[in-house]
Amino acid sequence: MKTALPFLFLFFLFSSGFAQRISKVEAIEDIELLDKTIRAVHYNPFLFTSSFKYLQKVNELKRSLPDSIETRFLTLKLGEITGIINDAHTAPSVIQSIFQADFRKPVFLPLTFVADKNGKAYSDGKSSRDIIPAGAEIISVNGISVSEFYKASALRVGGLQTYRNEIAVKMMGYNLYLSGIRPPFKVVYRHQQKKVIKEIEKGAILHDIIGDAFPNLVNKPYAFNVLNNKVAHIELNTLAGDYHPYLKFFDSCFTIIKQKNIKAVAIDIRKNTGGNSINADLLLGFFNSKRYMLSTGKNWKISQLYKDKLMKQGDSSNQYLKEQNNSIWQIKTCEPYAPKYTSEDAFFKGQVYLITGPMTFSSANMFADGVKQFKLATLVGESTGENTNDFGEGYRFQLPNSKISVSVSTSLDFGANCNDKTKHPVIPDRYIETSYLDQIKGIDPVLQYIKALNN
Where does the record place the Tail specific protease domain (predicted)? Predict the structure, then answer.
């Protein structure tokens, strides 16, 4: 069971003093601690790369450091080390809470982006329609090539290429901030075959440039509405947190669905990057009575660091503590289980669609995998953002000098088909791509398809 958001943790959670710049010696100490921790706790950091390439990247970064470095820029550079491992669960957290003093300041580029398959980036118009036209190709910002920056950012994220690309384009404004881009902004863009230079004096706050891509980070974990009075649309943007609010939300949704005699439900997890799979089990209890599994176990690296973390959390009875350090603990079961929860009053017997996409990740990916494997709903949309067998169970820590928060995987989790050789994401039953042009125009072909089926 994956119980934590992949590297989105600690957003707005605490404030701590930190140096805006640290010395080269301090940065090297942090890099070496990161390397040491990865080697100690990761299940297998060289499953998708070689130890030679990894070490080459570590040494290259240390050699390239100036006498002092901004901690913001070091966050990006550390992504080059974790990115080469090709494990999206192992990375500096996407949003670093140590920079939160800036989060409510208008210092971020007031643009949000989409990208085509050739690596060109465009304004989607959602945050900047009155500044730069929707659909304009953004060529550069303060002299930085946006296309090249986007491609470099994708290399700092692990996992499937589709997931890398989505994170890179959705985090463009934040990553530009980390790289030192500040207002005023000089934006060069191309629109209707004309090249335009636009000066933007004032930036946006972080909320405005990430809220649409990561609604869970701006206190929008879920939403409910009814489309054409015939399709109930449940947007489930995260699975993180305690189960009580989720249970209350799900119950309210399916109570309305029953009252309105709605025959079709679309559960949308395209913006869901994970959390606690128990909340997925709760949702299944409102429309599924079949036996199923979301995961069939894991290979778990045993380390003293992770044991210390469990003890610090008060988890002194965990079986993990009894396993030998530096060994691999295999936990596996292929026996489906009965639903962990069943709603009697609001149980739904109609058509259920599960909408997936390249940002469907971690526990959301497990949810989609179990639904697909056991035919609990019809999957529609694009393939998920990670393979059904993938890394998980993050060990989270903070580097002492830079205060950069990092997560490192400790396990390799197995998908719902109980085959440890599987190497593919969850593929929908009905593949419908949402292109970058669709996003610019505000068109959702997946919901259009579902509405057409239930007219």
Answer: 248-413
